[in-house]
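Suppose you are handed a protein chain with no further information: no name, no annotation, nothing but its sequence. What can you learn? This example shows the usual starting point.
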Amino acid sequence: MAKSSKAVVTFIVGAAVGVAVGYFLNSDKKDELVENLKSQADRLKEKFRKKKEQYEDAIENELA
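A reasonable first move is to predict its three-dimensional structure. Written in structure tokens, the prediction is:
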């Protein structure tokens, strides 16, 4: 794909995402959406924290 077609596709996808976010933030479900996103972010943070601890333990065991 040529550079210009990639740029056009990227622009269209970005615009679509922007429209979707704008729609949801202006809808009645805004608070529900924000709470769901916060909940998902918290779950991801916890997953990453656990993985970090696993890797730290594995490295510590290798060095010991």
